[in-house]
Structures are given as structure tokens and as C-alpha cells.
Amino acid sequence: MTLDNFGNLWLGMVEGGVCRFDGKTITRFNNQKDLADNEATAIYCDNSGYIWVGGGRTDGLMRYNDVCFSHYTTNEGLSAYEVFGILKDKSGQLWIGTFDGEVNLYDGKSFTHLNINESQSYNPVMKMIQAVNGDIWLATWGAGLLRYDGKSFYRFTKKEGLPGNDLLSIMQDRDGNIWLGTDGAGICRYDGKTFTHFNRENGLNDDTYMSIFQDNTGIIWFGSVSGGVTSFDGKTFTQFTQNEGFCNKPVKRILQDKSNFIWFCTSGKGVVRYDGKSFMYLTEKEGLKANTVNGMTQDRNGNLCFASGSGLSILRADYTDKLGQKSGDDKTNQTVLFRNFSPDDGFSGWGCNGAIVEDDSGTIWISASDRLTRYFPGLDVPDTIAPVIQLTSVQLYNENVPWLDLEKKKDTVLVLGNGVKVRNFQFDSIAKWYAYPENLSLAYNNNYLTFTFVGITPKLNTRVTYKYKLEGLDEDWSTFSSLIRTDAPYGNIPPGTYTFRVKAMNGEGYWSKEFTYTFTIRPPWWKTWWAYAGYMLLFIAAIWLVIYSVIENQRKKIRLIVNERNRIARELHDDIGAELTRITLISQLLQKKPELDAENRDKLRKISEAGKKVMGSISEIIWTMNPKNDNLDSLVAYIRRYVTDYLETNGIDVNIDFPDDIPANEVSDEYRRNVFLVAKEALSNLPKYPTASSVLLSLKIKEKLAEFEISDNGIGFSLKEKQNWGNGLSNMNQRMKAIGGNFQISSSEQQGTFIRLTFPVR
User: Fold this and answer.
1) Which residues make Cβ contacts (< 8 Å) with residue 638, sequence separation at least 6?
2) pTM for the whole thing?
């Protein structure tokens, strides 16, 4: 035996199941009602108030969940099983309106009945209020409005001025007027003498109103079935519909909380909070038990309690401050908003009808379609212990794999039920208890994995929610998933190394530690590193072949050009040169004949000189075209030889300052020809104007630049008078620019002339 948190005595019996004794009556639990087995040899009440029963021959350990809730039906004294309206009067007594049209009074111990029906027909009591003067007003469906002064009932129907006898809501404003919401006849106001009707002609946009409420500023709010919500300031009706951000769903209850927010219970859109400017929706996505909410209240601690057909949802007071706030960068740390109760928690009422009231002791009373439910918040022990998250299996193609059997048969081929073959799998070891492979490595075509997991908690696992992600594939965490879905399938996973992360949160918002599982999908051989290395080698070889082919083609072209240059040089030397030499010799021999007159001898002399000049030009061309001379050393040697022969013949001393070791830098035929012709042009002007007796030639090599300088000791000239040199300066400058070089000249009277040629060499 054991005592529960209410002082009830629980008895476990060998064959009679379990009995609970509350001091007055005995309640029996057996295999025909609640237990799986009648044998109960052990019974215990834990710190959370749960009753644990053990000893059954077939089903082991059982737990009784009905800890925080008590239920009242006709067995406990209610006049009818379906409850609509609940009112707590000023004395603390509960008024309970039922489907049969009776009012049940509960004094904390027992029920007494007040029959308000005038006939045998049932007229459910939908809502009740207590007026300022203490009178109880009852809104019924079918029997109009009733007032109870403590002794007698007074009825108001269409005969007395009501627009209709089917009433859905009732409220007394601060001026003492009674406001009524009807089913199909709009709004009605009773000032104690007459009834005033409001309908579409007065500014309303619906005919049926399920809720009426006056806020602390005096504004009256009307919740309709299809026209949204309407406010009334005493003169004007203001509509809030979809255009203003409100839904067009039925508004079943309206409430103003202690922070002055207005709350609306809707059918299909959850609960809506209005801050005076905009509407905020809280639905199943935010943790609400159901999107159709029939009733609400705020308890003494500021918690908001919402009743729906699926159970009870409580929004704690400290959570309301977090509404609309982001939870931070880690989306998994999102705080749970609602504490939900369902049949698993002992909330076994079916279909809340909308009435929910807190009595003087802090107990919450909830109307339902099959009973009256009582919730004891003080016995609800918060679940402050975070769940323990555990991976339970790693499946392939949605099929369980006998990893334990495969630990010693990793070279085998596993054929799954769907015909998929799994081969070349690798793993280090098998995890204890759940027998999944650790450090799993799979082939590229075995890449459909499903991870199953569970959050272990000492309280109800049905409140556990999960978030997961596959790091390496998912950017964000998943949305919340419940116990209904505790697996995460991933198909067509690309090759790579991944880490599956999962964490669990209990019903109070406490998160477990994160569980991680790392595995690898190996790439096919054609995507491995050594395959890419082979591709790279092949690519490099292909590039090398292309480059080699281009270079070889260039070499062939160069060889053809060289051969052609050699051929032209040979022909110039052997054919044209030989003929010019013959002409020159003949002209010289003819000049020596005595019978030749002076005029013809002069002509022969000119022919001889012209031949010699052409021979010199041909010699220069042959030198230029010879590929063997495509270097700086040959250029310098040729200029030295030309300068010496040319200037010394004209009686000018030549001084040469050339380096001893001239590098064999490559100089193309174009470069050689232009540099030589510029030097030749500069030197050819010296004998024409015999003012210089000596010339200095110098050469400097600076990295890949050559500087060739020519200076004389003549009288010089004014650069402004370039006509002395004709077009030579312009030609020399153009030739040096053509090869990317530079031409400089400086001269002044009595100071001589200085020329510098700068050109690149390779």
C-alpha cells in the first residue's frame, strides 16, 4: 500500500487489481477497466505523484497518470454528463450549467441541482455571470435569458423584447448593462428596463456572436462566427477582419490579461494576442495543443490556461514576456511556450465546451462534453530534468541491419529485403545496448540512411520533442518533431564525412545534451584522390604534349626561316656578290688603258666606287641575315670592325671602351640591323663635317639593356639647326623606337656631339 499526494490510500492486491480509498469511497481498478493485469503485488507513489504498480504476470510495470486531475460525471452527482457554463460566485460556490438545462451548485463537497426548465425540452445553460448586485444571470440556448435573485428565477424571452431565444454569450458592462450575443439575431443590450437590438444596420457585420468582453478602457469587444471581431466605444462599431490582420474564424472567448493584452480564442487559428496595434497568432506550431481553442482564463499566478477539444494548454507568465522575441543564433534553444495536458497526463475529458474557471483555492475547473474536469496546479510537479538523448539504430534503405552479426563478417555482401546489396562496409565496433556501428563507412551507392532516436525522461515521453541536422548536408536544424516521428531519413547522400546531431526537449523546455554520430560515405573509385591525381597527371601530360607540339612547330618554322636566310645570304654572296666583284674589277682594269679619255675614265671610276658601295651593303645584309650573328657579341664585333675601317680611313682616331667579356645575349636580326644602321648613320656624318679628330665608342650592359654611346671632340652644332644632319636624326629615332629602344643626342657649339643608343637584349 501507499499514500498519494492527496492523502488517498492505494492498495495492491494479488488478484483484485488496485483499490483507492479517499476516506469515503473505494474506487477499484482492474483488467476490465484500466489495468493490464489483476495482479498488483507492489505499489508506489513517486515524487511527481505518479502511482506505479508492479507484479503483473504479463505486462510488468504500470503507471497511473491521473495525478493532477479529478473528474466529475453523473456518477459523482452531476445532473448531466455534458457541461457548458461554469461560474464562481462571490461566495466561492460553483455554478455549473449542463446540457439538460439544469444548474448544478457545488460547495466543495457535493452537488445540488436547480431545475430551470419550464417543459420537458432541454435548454442548455451556455454562459452565466454574477451581476454587481449579486444576481445570477443565465444565457440559455432556446429558453432565453434568466435572472436568479437567490430565491426565484425570472425569464426573458422574445415576448419580453429579446431578439431571439438562442443565446451564446453574456456580459455586464461597468454601467450595469447586460449585453447578450445571440445565435442569428445580432447583439442585444438590456439596461434593466428595455432591450436594445444591434445588427448589420447598426454597423455589425455578422448575426451570430459567441463572446462579449469589456476591457479596462471601457471598450466592448464582440466575437463573431465569421465576421472577425468588433469593438464598440459606446458610439461606433469598429470592425477587425482580415484586412486589419484578424482571421475570419469563429471567436469563442475574449480576455484581457494582467499586462493589458487582449486575447481571442478562435476555431482553427489558435489564440490571438492584440497589443493595440497588431495581432500575434499562437498555434500548434508554437506548441499549442490544438488550433481550435474553446475557452481560456488567467490564474492568480498570471498563467494563461487554454482549453481545447484535445486537452489543456498553459502558457506560463514568464513565457508571455518572450513572445515575439528571437531565441538567438542557435535555433535549437527555442523555448517551449506551452505546457500541454492530454489523456496521457490524466486529462481524460472529451471536447472542452469553453468554460474554464479558477476557484478560490487556485483549482482550475474545465467544462467538457462528457464530464467536469478539475485541475490541481499545485500537484503538477515541473519536469526540470532534461531528457537523455540516445541513438537507437542506424538503418539502411529503411531496413534494420544486423550490425552485430556483421561485426565479424565485414567481407560479406548483405542483401536487404528490397533487393539492395550492401558491400564494402566498414566500422570500428558496435555500440553497447543499441548495437549500431561506430565510425561507419559505406560505399557511394549505399547512401540511404535512417537514424532512429529516443529522448529518455522520467516523466511522459509524449511531451518530448526533437531537433536534428546532418552536419555537412543541412544548413539549419529541423523543425520540432514529436514522439510520433523519432527518425531522420536521409537519401542520396553525396560522398563525404558527416555528423548527425540530435537533441531532445521535454515539456518544460529543458534541452538534453547534443548527441553526435559521425559516418563516411566513400566516393566511387573515379572520384577518389588517386583517381584525381591520375586525372591531373593526364592533364599535365596533355598540356605538355600541346606545348611540345607548339614549340616543335615553332622550331620547324624557325629552322625554315634560318634555312631561308642562309639560302638568301649564300645567293647574295655567291651570285650577286661575285657579279659585283667582277664588274668592279673590270671597271678598274679599263681605267688603266692609256687610250681611254678622261671623261670615260671618270665614269669607270664611278662605276667601280658604286660597285664597292653595293658590295658593302650586300655584306651588311648577309651579316644581318646570318643566324649565327643573332647575339650581342657579333653585333658589337661588327660595329667595332666597321667603325675602325670607316673612321680610320677618313683620318679620325678611334677609341673603343667595350667590356672584355661581352655576354652572348640573344639579339634578333631586326635589332642588329636597326642598331647597326643607327650607328652607321651617326658615324657617317663625321667625315662629312671634318671638325672632329677622335671618336670614343663605349658599351655598357645593364641586366637586359645595352647602352651604346658615341662621342666626338668636334665643334658640335645647334640641335635647333638639324638641317646639318638632314633627316638622319628622325630616321635614327624611328629605328630605335621600332625595337623598343631609345635614341638620345646632345650637342652644342665647341662641345662636340654625344649619342646614346639604348635597346633591350634577351
Assistant:
1) 623, 629, 672, 676
2) 0.61
